[in-house]
Specification:
- With 362 residues, this protein is mainly beta.
- The chain has 1 helix and 32 strands.
- The protein is globular, with a radius of gyration of 25 Å.
- A hairpin with a 3-residue loop joins strand 2 (65-66) and strand 3.
Amino acid sequence: MDNSKKNNTSIIPIGSNALVRAANSIEITKRLLDEYEHKKTSLTQLKGQLKWKFKTEGTVSSSPAITASMVYFGSGDEYFYALHRQTGELKWKFKTGGSVKSSPEIIEGVIYFGSWDRNFYAIDSHSGQCKWKIRTEGWVDSSPAIMDGVVYFGSWDAYLYAVDMKSGQLLWKFKTEKSVRSSPVIMDGIVYFGSEDSYLYAVECHTGRLKWSFKTESYINSSPAIIDEVVYFGSDDGNLYAINSLSGQLIWKFKTERSVLSSPLINDRVIYFGSREGLYALDSKLGELKWKFETKYAVTSSPKINDGKVYFGSGEGLYALDSYSGVLIWRFETESHVHSSPTIKDGVVYFGSFDKYLYAIE
């Protein structure tokens, strides 16, 4: 009796064409896996390298404005700074009477920003001399929007202001019920902004008359973004909203786990924004989630995109993610929270931190 085990494997003859197809399939799969591993390794090996950093005496939550040769930003030490962009050396600094959290806007050689001394300033970008200032009744950390010779900004006194950019003369102001910390955005003669009274407002630029308002369930510090007649903004109620810019009617809303403080960025039909638990990427037309990157701390910094990477700050420093997949490329650690939104020029990322530094990262 034969006690050897029988071989139950069936051998099926395969034609030469099938063998070729199988071999090609294996080769393609191997190549794709190799490319994935190479990309993954390359991403993890990339690091943000420090070009320079500049120390102030207060927290830096103001987002910098960049020109060909200069960097401008404010600090919690009550100064507004002008640095040489390549070296980080100080050119001049301007003293206000309060923290400067407002992010500056520069046009025609003049820098516009607000301060917690309740004033809004226009400063000569070359000399650092004050051209004019206008006083409000509250702190000003709303960043300005400028259009057709008019500067628009909000104040903690619950007003949105419209001021002549040359003279500083008040043209009109629009009253809400609570602080206006959201920075305004202008499109087609309408200025859009949020208030801590939970409303998003659309106001006519020339008259200051209300066109429409949209109510959320909590305060709005997120600044709106507009494209294709849709206004996108976040609320402390945890939603990111998409609103018709002409009618103020809701198109869709996306619920996060916690409040949305970061202002949204739209790029190639994708909307990026931060919340208290991380950074989101949504389809801007449908409001559907594409990916989410979780962070340990809140993302109050508003994202920026450059060369396929999305940059934003959180409690652990500045992050760079692949904008398509949300995969981490690198993280640059600072000593404290990064609330300042990054500004990018010529491959260098500029941003501030609560550790009192302004950074330039390559």
